[in-house]
Automatic annotation (TrEMBL):
Source taxonomy: Bacteria, Pseudomonadati, Pseudomonadota, Betaproteobacteria, Burkholderiales
Species in which this protein is naturally found: Roseateles koreensis
Signal peptide: 1-22
The name this protein goes by in its record: Branched-chain amino acid ABC transporter substrate-binding protein
Record has Transport as a keyword: yes
Similarity comment: Belongs to the leucine-binding protein family.
Length: 380
């Protein structure tokens, strides 16, 4: 009799467990960034932002359509390479992810966006700023930062009106991001009445810039703008000092990282570098951002580089759309995601326009003092 009772109790437990499992929905969130290569520190920063958001969502016990959601992160490395980026995108599609956060670079984000669009999978980039990303008509593409038209144009105007640059030189790394932001910077300089005395280019893996810097030195620029990433900007700053070039050095979000002083090997003078992050918070919002950075450092023993907070917000915006739609199925929550309005994140208020761009995106201007980033102003 006791044996039969044990069997019955065991069967009930199994059925209860099965019922509980049936009340759980697994939500797969893909993340893609360069976690290998020269800018791996930026890709890992982004991935950790995603992990933090996923862990917190699971701890909260988020419900979607009456079922407890179990969020899983599927992280892929694109090494900042477009071909590897599309391969990573296809792998996530084949894994039937519910949504994707990424990629980091415009050069990988844009080709990958076609793959996600064809599969009907929503994609939010936390850092791709090339305007083309949201202008291809892909209704699955969103971003939570301002684009290069705003970022590059604002920096170009700033170089003329605030830095008082009289002779401005431009260098880009020929990537979708680097060339794009440099083009917009140049337009901004000219629109503000400034003069561009030279335009040179390199690539995103270069380490020797003596030829292009020597060419520009002869034109005596007082401002040099670089469209590219910090892994190239650091050595470029070292070589500028070696050549005796004392110009201000400007750039976009790609150089505006916590790692730049180390990459420049201590050769940066205070206030020499001026850069902009494609995002920013003001007033009371600063407390939320500082709290995030403190929590991030406590958990991972690392400083936030640039975009971990934007990844964190992107994951939460996507999850909020799923909750509101009552479904994690891409086709069902995508229309809700597109109508996101007034979502309060650690990076500020997030609302999307009809292209998938963030409305009224902010920029934060930074310089460096004593080997650390120092905020100058938030502009819109």
């Amino acid at each position: 009799m006791q044996i039969k009772l044990n069997v019955v109790v065991g069967a009930i437990a199994l059925l209860s467990g099965a019922a509980a499992m049936s009340q759980e929905v697994v939500v797969k969130i893909g993340h893609v960034g360069p976690t290998s290569g020269a800018i791996a520190h930026l890709g890992k920063d982004n991935e950790l932002g995603a992990r933090m958001a996923i862990n917190e969502l699971n701890a909260k016990g988020v419900m979607i359509g009456g079922k407890k959601a179990k969020f899983e992160l599927l992280a892929e490395d694109d090494a900042g390479d477009p071909k590897q980026g599309t391969a990573a995108a296809q792998k996530l599609v084949d894994s039937k992810v519910n949504g994707v956060i990424g990629h980091l670079n415009s050069g990988t984000t844009i080709p990958a966006s076609k793959i996600y669009f064809d599969a009907g999978i929503p994609q939010i980039s936390p850092s791709a700023t090339n305007p083309k990303f949201t202008r291809n008509g892909y209704k699955t593409a969103f971003r939570v930062v301002a684009d290069d038209v705003h970022l590059g144009g604002t920096l170009g105007k700033y170089a003329v009106t605030q830095v008082k640059g009289k002779s401005i030189a431009v260098i880009d790394d020929r990537t979708a991001y680097g060339q794009g932001v440099a083009d917009e910077f140049e337009k901004g300089v000219k629109a503000a009445g400034g003069k561009v005395v030279g335009r040179e280019f390199t690539n995103d893996k270069a380490t020797d810039f003596s030829a292009i810097l020597t060419s520009l030195k002869g034109k005596k620029p007082d401002v040099i703008f670089f469209g590219g990433m910090d892994a190239v900007a650091g050595p470029m700053l070292r070589q500028m000092k070696q050549l005796g070039i004392v110009a201000k050095f400007m750039g976009g979000d790609g150089i505006c990282t916590a790692a730049l002083p180390e990459l420049a090997a201590g050769t940066m003078a205070d206030d020499q570098v001026i850069c902009a992050e494609a995002g920013g918070v003001e007033g009371a919002g600063k407390k939320d951002m500082e709290a995030f950075k403190a929590k991030f450092k406590e958990q991972y023993k690392l400083e936030v580089q640039v975009y971990a907070p934007y990844v964190y917000d992107a994951v939460n915006v996507m999850a909020a759309a799923m909750v509101k739609a009552g479904s994690a199925e891409p086709a069902k929550y995508l229309p809700v995601l597109a109508k996101t309005e007034g979502f309060k994140g650690v990076t500020g208020v997030i609302s999307f326009d009809n292209k998938g761009d963030i409305k009224n995106g902010a920029l934060t201007m930074y310089t460096y003092k004593g080997g650390a980033r120092s905020e100058m102003a938030v502009v819109r």
